[in-house]
Structures are given as structure tokens and as C-alpha cells.
Amino acid sequence: MRGRATPPGPVLDLSGDRLRRAMADLAASAEPTGGVNRYLTALHLKSALFKEVLGQGATGLSETEFLDLVAFMAPVRRRIGPVIARLGVEELGRRIEALLHGEGGVDARLARFIAAFPNGKEMRWVRDLGAELLHFTQPSVPLMARWVWDARVSTGVLREIWHAADVDMAEISVPDDLATFTTLYAELEGFLEGEGVWRDRIWMVDLLMAHIYAGYINDRGGQYLRSDFTQDVDPMLHTRRMLGLDAVDTETGRTRLRLIDGSAHEFGGGRAARLDVTTAEATPEDANADP
């Protein structure tokens, strides 16, 4: 499957049938919690929050502001506590500023950001941190998270929508660099246009990909992110968690981000305090903001 305006990059052999089935399942699954538009609004508000906090630069970032963002990054929030305690938010702010506005292209900046942290399996979430910061402050940069495509272990959304008789056995020899993710987004936006989706296509791509990978977690119970996502009957549970839209525990009203002392982080206010997919509504200011 090819999108209308695919940029130079690897050829991605995507399955239109798999995508159409995922779209239909997404629409049906989202209906009980307000429909697809409620989730698109929540993603728009998440991006508005990231832009609001980081729009004037990350070097003056406060700990509360940073934690407000971390609460909406599910692969990050369980692991970052010790790093904050060791480095401090001031140092993290300098690294984030270099990631967002430093020299070089996106690939180079993300690679330097990752390399600034210790290496090892327990730190692989740093790529997800960098990917979310880039995407939700600059939505034209595709979401380059591991769950979208991780070439090292050959897992992610890309495999789940690959055109192959046996997806599990397919060899997908494409890197997880900016060119691949940009091509993937262009392909999926082309697919959505063909399905009659004309608005919010960047956020719709995010939502569709999250729902596809949530299906992988539900159906196969793989170990990747298994500790973050437990079984539940809600068909949108894992979809929300992939996108960090489950930041607030609806039963307790507390955030799911645990601080180093074990207590729950409390939002500092503003957009963070009201970004909840079950209640998300766009204000006039939000509705007029740039996507």
C-alpha cells in the first residue's frame, strides 16, 4: 500500500486489509467512551500541554512542569524517578533543550539525547521519552517510539500492518530512523484520506497505530511493555496507555506517576489537570491552536 505523497525513504509494504480492519475495530471500541473524536481531542490537548510547558525553552523547566509531562508518557513514568533524583530537573532540562532545538537533524539530536544517558536494557525507555517530547511539541516530527517500530528487536506497529501471509515470520529490513517513520506517517495519512478522514490526520495516525499495537498486546500477551499494561475488558485500555492518555486513575483521581518516595504526583494545574480522555473537551483557545 502506498500513500499519495510518500517522501523519499524505504518502501513499506503495508496491508490495506489489516488497516481497514483496525479502523473498523477502533471506531467500535471507542464508541462507549465518547467515540474517536474524544480521543483526538485528548491528543490535541496533550500536544497543547507539551507546547505550553516547553514553548519558551526547557532550560527553566520546573520539576512540577516536567512531571506533568511525564505523567502522560506511559513507558517513561514508571522508570524515570531514579533519573530525576540522580540528575535533577535542571540537567534534564538542558538535555531536552538540546533535543528540541540543538544542532543537527532530528535523527542526530535524538541519538545524542539517548547517548547522554547510561546504556543498557533498563534505559531503553529514554528513546520513548525523546520521541514523545519531539512529536508532541513538534507534531510534524513523527512519533518514533519503540512500540511504533524497533528495528533492533523487529517489533512494533509496522510489523502488525505488514503485508505478509505470516507476519510473525516476515523479515522487515528497514531502520527505525526519521526516514522510515516519516514514510510510515505519509502512508497512513494517505490511507486515512482514502477512507474519507480529512481532519486531524496526524492525531488519527497516532490513535490508529496505538490501537493496532494495543491489539497485539491483547491478543498475544507479549513481554514488551507487559509490566505496564495488564489485562482488562476495556477494549480501549491499552490504546489509551500507549498514548499516555490514562494519566489519571479514574477510581482514585490520582495520577499514575509515582514519585521516588512512592507518593502520587499531583498536577501543577493548567491543561495537565484537565487532560482526561473521559472528559476532554476543546476550549476555544485549544480549538484554534495550530495542530
TrEMBL record:
It comes from the Bacteria. It comes from Rhodobacter maris. This is Uncharacterized protein.
